[in-house]
Specification:
The structure is a homodimer of 219-residue chains.
Chain A: E1 10-14, H1 24-34, E2 38-41, H2 50-67, E3 71-74, H3 77-83, E4 87-90, H4 97-104, E5 109-113, H5 117-122, E6 130-134, H6 152-160, E7 167-170, H7 178-183, E8 188-191, H8 193-196, H9 201-217
Parallel strand pairs in A: 1-2, 1-8, 2-3, 3-4, 4-5, 5-6, 6-7, 7-8
Helix pairs in contact in A: 1-2, 1-9
Chain lengths: 219, 219
């Protein structure tokens, strides 16, 4: 697919473990209605088998297709290929970005989590379409997220890396604290619980999207 | 690759977590010298990142290539493809066998763990080259292995499934208890700790191989 940095405006990351017991398909539908621009399936720490994850992924893929929202799969390139997803997102402890690029080819989107300029520089050979940087703020959705690096990390990576891929901030972001992330140079924000565990995911997504767009138009 | 059931004679399954602190490459070299016929990389519960697992996998693949021992990768088809492995082995909670088959194609080997005839029958669409059945006996290498099903499970699956793929028994097998597994109709035995944690992996493999061959020649 053709990747545009504007797809990072509001990047919704979710698995069944994040939905407060509600149907992930419903949560995704609501999030899309609220204005998310990209979706990542991140099934982690749930009780689903991989077979059940494939079945869930197929349901969510159909929803994404219907609304033309690209689907990225976290960590497992094999699952991404089985689902016919648009791309793969890897962290520093996952399969190396350049290996995943070789595997999925240049027509698929590759995203890489990077906290520091050093990590960002190491993704160069992979030609990652975007970098996810965080945690921006303290978060409970990702127990292994480590200490927040704050919006300054976005500025830092952009300053140190020539022709830096677009950056999306992640970790503890809400409509109330998204503005500094965008001001620091991120193309958008990625969220899990701010949408997935919101009482009204549609409204939560709408508020986040509006905050991002307003901040961008004044940047 | 062309899969022959005789590759199942002595199937060595191993990851760095199984080697009692020794270099997995050394353990594999010794196991090959002792007579293993097939190798599965099963990196599970270790502290290696996936990047480190790729690096380890490359070292072990080079050893397998040198000695013409096929390399199967446990669970992750993406890792198998990155390593250029000969096949993938999946359990009941891993990616569904028929999905993996679609992904890796018919030139790669697909193995599936099945405890019961029902599970074995479900692998039909995948055209699995072999079935792994166990645990034959109590085992400590695989904490999630469940209660032993015993060699009778091999007979049971073969009796219930017409044109059953070749079966390899796994779980708690040593040279001292391998004979009933082969007598029950298995083409061979798969072992982890009997070789990987043996003081002398080469001798352990040699004893196992000899037991399997002797039992087969009298079957």
């Amino acid at each position: 697919m053709d990747f545009s940095p504007s797809l990072l405006r509001l990047y919704f990351v979710m698995g069944s473990q994040d939905c407060a017991g509600r149907d992930p398909a419903w949560v995704l539908e609501e999030a899309i209605a609220g204005g998310i621009t990209l979706f990542q399936l991140r099934e982690k720490g749930s009780s689903l088998t991989l077979g059940e994850t494939v079945a869930l992924g197929r349901r969510l893929k159909a929803i994404c297709d219907e609304h033309r929202i690209p689907l990225i799969v976290n960590d497992r390139a094999d699952l991404a290929m089985i689902l016919g997803a648009d791309g793969v997102h890897v962290g520093q402890d996952d399969l190396p970005a350049d290996e995943v690029r070789q595997l999925i080819g240049t027509r698929s989107v590759l995203g890489v989590s990077c906290e520091t300029p050093e990590e960002a520089l190491q993704t160069r050979n992979s030609g990652a379409e975007y970098i996810g940087t965080g945690a921006m703020y303290a978060t409970s959705s990702k127990p292994d997220a480590g200490k927040p690096v704050g919006p300054a990390a976005v500025e830092h990576i952009r300053a140190e890396m020539k022709s830096c891929p677009p950056i999306v901030g992640i970790g503890g972001i809400t409509a109330a604290n998204a503005t500094p992330v965008i001001r620091a140079g991120a193309e958008g924000v990625a969220v899990i619980s701010a949408i997935a565990s919101a009482e009204n995911p549609r409204r939560a997504a709408g508020n986040l999207r509006e905050t991002v767009e307003t901040t961008l138009s004044n940047r």
